[in-house]
Write a structure and sequence with these properties.
alpha/beta, Rossmann fold, 2 domains, eight-stranded mixed β-sheet, 12 strands
């Protein structure tokens, strides 16, 4: 990144002590987010996406704990702040949008009371000005008749409406960073578009940074500037969103892209990544993805790869290490030139361009597996430049 980062996460490690030993849920995670940037974080359930967000905002549920690394916001380390000091950061400097709006709203208070309290706690404004700002926030998030609905209780809103109130709460104190954990989950498509537009406008106008945690690659393609792919508590690939979607550099990312059904072609059987993510008690030695990977060789079973350059992205995969490939007896030419390497998934380059190493089609692809091409219709040409 060339911009000065607002958020810096370095070697973050999250552990859960148990009677049978310590479970490592997030291991050696590092990334940065610049002002005005949207970083998408994707991966299967259990990959550690929400835990990473909770650790940044200081809301890890016991017995979870940050066991290593550091989190800096605007140059200030915040992961070791006392509870009272972190409360001042939370809300004012960092806003959060959680998955379940019912757990984010107090059922005993009107949404107006909750919004006004948040605004007056963090901003030096009068109660009347705070109420006016609260109404504006409700209108901005798509709630009609906000002047009247501001005095309603959470149970008087639908699920989608409650989610919009939660988004308004996250934006109430004008934070520098918003951690959005599945912010569009409970919303229909038209409201999703409104929320995406709101987040993008927030980034553009106020230079707010957003960490967008989601399973929806369509939302990522439309909203994010960069995307980090997590697997078994680690980032396995990170890079510009268009490159990660169209030219995945890690076998897991390629599998994720290939498993998305295409609207442009008929497919009798969806592609899939065989197996499932390992439990925290069963993470294998070496690369955690190797039991499911069609490209596994000896080094993958012995040593865990760190993120390394892979085209315009970074990928934690030994396929991008020429020394590891030479030791495995593979042709170095396979990794020179175009860095779109993960072609067992056949999502990027035709077989004749990637050499004999990719001619064997994996058994979970019965036909043409170029299922991610329809994302080219989602990202506008200007975004790909």
């Amino acid at each position: 990144m060339t911009k000065t980062p607002l958020l810096e996460v370095r070697n973050l490690r999250i552990e859960f002590p148990t009677r049978r030993g310590t479970l490592v849920a997030v291991d050696d995670v590092s990334f940065e987010i610049a002002p005005g940037e949207v970083l998408g974080v994707v991966g299967e359930s259990g990959a550690g996406k929400s835990l990473t967000g909770a650790a940044i905002i200081g809301l890890l549920e016991p017995p979870g704990r940050i066991a290593g690394g550091e989190v800096k916001l605007a140059g200030l380390r915040i992961d070791n702040l006392p509870y009272d000091e972190m409360r001042k950061v939370r809300g004012r400097e960092i806003g959060a949008i959680f998955q379940d709006p019912l757990t984010s709203l107090n059922p005993l208070y009107t949404v107006g009371q909750q919004l006004v309290e948040t605004i007056t706690t963090h901003l030096h404004v009068s109660a009347a000005e705070a109420r006016r700002r609260a109404i504006d926030l409700l209108l901005a998030t798509g709630i009609p008749a906000a002047e009247r609905r501001i005095d309603h209780y959470p149970h008087q809103f639908s699920g989608g409406m409650r989610q919009r109130v939660v988004i308004a709460l996250a934006l109430a104190a004008e934070p520098k960073l918003v951690i959005a954990d599945e912010p569009t989950t409970a919303l229909d498509v038209s409201i999703q578009a409104q929320i995406i537009t709101l987040l993008k406008r927030l980034c553009r106008d106020k230079r707010t940074a957003v960490m967008l945690i989601t399973h929806d690659m369509g939302v990522i393609a439309e909203t994010a500037d960069r995307v980090a792919v997590m697997y078994a508590g680690r980032i396995v690939e990170i890079g510009p969103v268009a490159d990660v979607i169209h030219r995945p550099q890690h076998p897991y990312t390629a599998g994720l892209m290939g498993s998305i059904p295409s609207v442009a072609q008929d497919t009798e059987r969806l592609a899939q990544i065989e197996g499932s993510m390992p439990r925290l008690t069963e993470i294998p030695r070496g690369c955690a993805f190797h039991p499911r990977c069609p490209k596994t060789f000896d080094r993958c079973l012995q040593k865990r790869p760190d993120l390394m350059p892979a085209g315009t992205s970074q990928a934690a995969c030994w396929l991008h290490d020429p020394d590891a490939m030479r030791a495995a007896g593979r042709e170095a030419a396979y990794f020179e030139g175009d860095a779109s390497l993960i072609n067992d998934f056949n999502t990027v380059l035709p077989v004749d361009k990637v050499g004999a190493a990719t001619k064997k089609k994996p058994k979970y692809f019965d036909g043409d597996a170029s299922q991610i091409d329809h994302y080219k219709t989602i990202i506008r040409p200007a975004d790909e430049e």
